[in-house]
Amino acid sequence: MKAENIVRKRRMIAALVTLFSTACIIISILFITLLSPDRKNGQESAVHSSTHIDTTNKGSKIQAGSHIFFGTYEQDNDASNGKEDIEWLVLANEGDKALLISQYGLDGKPYADNLNDTLWETCSLRKWLNEDFIDIAFSPEEQSRIISSAVTADKNPKYSTSPGNDTTDKVFLLSISEVEKYFSSYSDRPCHGTAYCHAQGTIKSSITGYCWWWLRTPGDTPIYAVVIEDDGTLELGGDRVTLGGQAVRPAMWIDTKDL
Fold this sequence. Notes:
Blueprint: H1 2-35, E1 39-40, E2 43-44, E3 51-52, E4 67-73, E5 84-94, E6 97-102, E7 107-108, H2 124-137, H3 140-143, E8 149-151, E9 167-169, H4 176-182, H5 195-199, E10 213-218, E11 224-228, E12 234-240, E13 247-248, E14 251-255
Parallel strand pairs: 3-4
Antiparallel strand pairs: 1-2, 4-5, 5-6, 6-14, 7-13, 8-9, 10-11, 11-12
C-alpha cells in the first residue's frame, strides 16, 4: 500500500506539473497576441489611427500622414474569403480633396505591354488603372468620390527622354517630382507588396523584404520608366517597361467633403 501511495503521489505531481506548464504556454500565447502589432494583408499596419471611409463615417479628419481605408482589392491571395479593404497613405489634404497612395503594392504588372506604347499617356498600365482597377476596387458611390485630375507629363531631371503629353486621370502613378515632394525622406519610400501582389510576379528583395514600384516618369530611354528601388532610392534610368517584377501603387485625389 505504501508503494501504491508513492506512485499515486508521483502521478499527481506529474499531472500538476503538466497542467501548470500548459497554463503557462496558453498565457504566453495570449500575452504575445495582445502585444503584437495589428496586421493587414500579412503586413504590419498602423490601423489604430486609420479611418475607414464609408457612407456612415461622417466628420472624420483626413490629414497628411494618416491612413484610411477606401475600396477593396484581393490582397491575401485567398479569393475564397473575398477582397480586403485597401489601406491608403494620405499624402496631402487640400481643402475638400486629399491625395492618396496605396500603402502596399497592390498588383504586379508591366508598365507597358509592348515597346511601342511606352509613354504614360499611351501605356497599358494607365489604361488598366483607369478602367479595370477602378471598377474592381471601388463601388459606384466610391468612384464618384475619385476626382478626375490633371496629370502632368514630368520630365526626367537627368535624361532628355520625352515624357509625352499631360493627361487627365482618376487613378495614376506618381512622378519623380511628386515622390520628392511627398516622400522627402528615403526611409519613407520602401514599400511592401501584398501576398497577391507577389503572386502576380512582383519581386521581393531578399535583403530588405521590400519591392520595387513604378513611377510614371520616363527613364534614360523611351523604353524605360523610373522605379523606386527596394531601399527607397530613385532609379532614374528606370526599368524596361515590359518587365513584370515591379509593384503597382495607385495614386488618386478623392473628394473629402462630408467625410
